[in-house]
Write a structure and sequence with these properties.
53% helix, binds flavin-adenine dinucleotide, alpha+beta, four-stranded antiparallel β-sheet, three-stranded mixed β-sheet
Length: 408
């Protein structure tokens, strides 16, 4: 065997396979049977979170272990299994990790140690975290964020005012991480993230959204009205912010490259969620096509159906390979020069929408009813072309990366 072949393997380690099977067992026996009920209730499935906490699946330790797993595939493997079972409950189980990652990537060790455990809580008293960047007038255009954070030197506090929208776990989280502008003239370069501790006066939930899909995940506005947080709640600390602003003042780069790197590295996690939903639909449609008989033979014997299943399966496997490549590159610290993270999110999100629609078609009338899960999976899948950067924004990022041009 040559060196090149020895150095390449797509086989998961035995630890990862064991962990995947353990998560799958919980996903199949606890999450999937609860999925339809929580979709109808449109509420956070607290009892499922408690069950997951009891076995250590909803815990900071478990996520941290997978986040730092050497191959980079820990989080993609977990997320695929959870979202295979149900995307709404899956997002309730993983939404806190978005807030956690935002503190891990820029926070001080003290901030990580103090606030991350409070985003997860413990068995019998589970908690959530929320990451609040989007605003009514700042979705794709994050540079337009109007929420303002002003430093009050006398009290060493930051005073935050603004309205956030679309926040997963917004208003019901124990810890909110809020992106605000500290220097509006600088656009996205003048922004910073702030930790809002539990029970801080002035933070409240606005409208809770009733959604097309992922309805077991809570999405709401967050209103910040003269919210005062201690100086130490500025993620990364004031010295780092002052240094960054000084660099920008001197006409140098202000760390936006680092922010882009963080986004590229986190996108494969979202791609893995989409792969999970897509895989569920392909498995279900395949089994249905093997057993549903029309014209005296299983519908899957018709090329018109089998070819669809072939395309569906191939595209899910392709999406997973892009996801694993990007996650692996991120873990190895390799530069994502062609925006490989965005590629994985784009392809996996669009694959999930397409294959869940094809699954409905293969189930015929049954596919269109709530007696079968594929219509829910189709509703759920659509979020993956919208949040964490829409498909158009992913194409823009990839377009810029591959052409080197300022594509708009
Ligand atoms: C269920 C749900 C959960 C969410 N969770 C969170 C969360 O936890 N935290 C958070 O901060 N945000 C969250 N979001 C917000 C999400 O990230 C935004 O909805 C997303 O970034 C798109 O922003 P927008 O909705 O304002 O759409 P817009 O930015 O208004 O876009 C509308 C359309 O215009 C297109 N468009 C915009 N600009 C361009 C361009 N330059 N070129 C081509 N097309 C363009 C978009 O692709 C889209 O199709 C969530 C959203 C949803 C629906």
């Amino acid at each position: 065997m040559s060196d090149a072949t020895q150095g390449f393997s797509l086989e998961l380690s035995s630890d990862l396979r064991e962990m995947r099977d353990w998560v799958h067992q919980f996903a199949a026996s606890v999450i999937r049977p609860a999925a339809a009920e929580w979709d109808e209730r449109e509420q956070v499935p607290w009892p499922v979170l408690e069950e997951a906490a009891k076995i250590g699946l909803y815990s900071l330790d478990f996520y941290a272990q997978q986040y730092f797993e050497g191959s980079g595939l820990g989080i993609p493997v977990v997320f695929e299994e959870l979202f295979w079972a149900d995307a709404g409950i899956g997002l309730s189980l993983t939404g806190s990790s978005l807030a956690a990652v935002s503190v891990v990537s820029n926070g001080t060790p003290e901030q990580i140690g103090e606030w991350l455990p409070q985003m997860f809580g413990k068995p019998g008293d589970v908690k959530l975290g929320a990451f609040c960047a989007s605003e009514p007038d700042a979705g794709s255009d994050v540079g337009a964020i109007r929420t303002r954070a002003v430093y009050d030197q006398k009290s060493d506090e930051w005073v935050i005012n603004g309205v956030k929208t679309w926040a997963t776990n917004g208003g019901i989280a124990n810890v909110h991480v809020v992106v605000a502008s500290v220097d509006p003239a600088l656009g996205s370069r003048g922004q910073a993230s702030f930790i809002v501790p539990p029970g801080t006066p002035g933070l409240r939930m606005g409208q809770k959204f009733r959604k097309h899909g992922i309805r077991a995940s809570h999405t709401a506005e967050v209103i910040l009205d003269d919210v005062r947080v201690p100086g130490q709640c500025l993620v990364g600390g004031k010295d780092k912010l002052d240094e960054r602003l000084a660099r920008i003042g001197a006409g140098k780069r202000g760390g936006e490259q680092a922010a882009m790197k963080t986004f590229e590295a986190s996108r494969p996690s979202v791609a893995a969620m989409a792969v999970g939903v897509a895989r569920a639909a392909v498995e279900f449609a395949t089994e249905y096509a093997r057993t549903r008989v029309q014209f005296g033979r299983p519908i899957g014997q018709n090329q018109g159906v089998a070819f669809q299943l072939a395309d569906m399966r191939a595209s899910v496997d392709a999406a997973r390979l892009l996801t694993w490549r990007a996650a692996w590159m991120a873990r190895q610290g390799l530069p994502m020069l062609a925006a490989e993270g965005s590629m994985s999110k784009l392809v996996a999100g669009e694959t999930a929408v397409r294959v869940t629609e094809q699954a409905i078609q293969i189930l015929g009338g049954n596919g269109y009813t709530r007696e079968y899960p594929v219509e829910r999976w189709h509703r759920d899948a659509k979020i993956f072309t919208i949040f964490e950067g829409t498909s158009e924004i992913q194409r823009m990022i990839i377009g810029r990366a591959v052409t080197g041009l300022d594509v708009r």
